[in-house]
Each structure stands twice: as C-alpha cells, then as structure tokens.
Amino acid sequence: MDVAIHFKELDNKLYGFIEGEIDTFTASGLREELEAVKIKEGLEIELNLSKVNYMDSTGLGIFVAFYKRALRENGKVKLVGLSNRLQRLFEITGLSDLMDIETDKKVELRK
User: Fold this and answer.
1) β-pairing, 44-55 with 76-80?
2) What is the per-residue pLDDT across 2-38, written as a single tens digit (0 to 9) for each?
3) Across residues 44-66, what is the average pLDDT?
C-alpha cells in the first residue's frame, strides 16, 4: 500500500491529511511532499494521521526531521488523529514529550 498526503491551507494554517502505510518503501514520497512545504514564520501546520494504519521507524524519522525544520523556520507543527498504536510508538520513543501531539480530544477531519 502507498502513502498519500493532501494539503489544505486556510489563513495562516496548513492542514495535511496523511493516509496509508509509512514504511521504508513508501517513506520517500512522504518525505518529498513534506520537504516541498514552504514554511514561513508563524505558519501553523496540522498533520492528521487518523488514516495512517502502519508506521515504522522510517516514518518517525520523517516527522522528526519535518518538525525540526519547522522549528528552525519559526513554524509550528502539531500531529493529530493518531491511533492508539501510533500514539504508543511516539510515547515509547520519547517523541511525544518533544513534539506537539494532540491526543486528548477527537479530531474532526477538515476536508
């Protein structure tokens, strides 16, 4: 299965909807899409992972790299809609302490 990402921009907020499996075979496409995002100061980026059904360490690395780039360029990134499995993956690696991950409320899909 592939991974797909679609973006929608409203005001100074960019919404990314990611769907599929993120592994060593599909990660390059996601990496390219995220690298193409133009981050300007104050841009808020919300990445919805509610339709990601699998992710390995390659996917984690892509999100960490994107998160770091956004911080360097004075943007903000929030991950939302993580399944319990994905949420646990970020917790086990300690990334949930570093990254902005919304887990407390149900995320409404904004399509």
Assistant:
1) parallel
2) 899 999 999 889 999 999 999 999 999 999 999 999 9
3) 95
What 8-state DSSP symbol labels residue 110? -
pTM assigned to the model: 0.89
Question: Structure tokens of 28?
Answer: 């390059």
Instruction: From residue 66, give the alpha-carbon distance in Å to each of 11, 23, 25, 106.
Output: 21, 16, 19, 24
Q: Is residue 110 part of a domain?
A: no
The range of the structural domain enclosing residue 68 comes to 3-101
In the sheet where 76-80 sits, what is the strand order? 3-10, 13-22, 44-55, 76-80, 100-101
CATH code (residue 50): 3.30.750.24
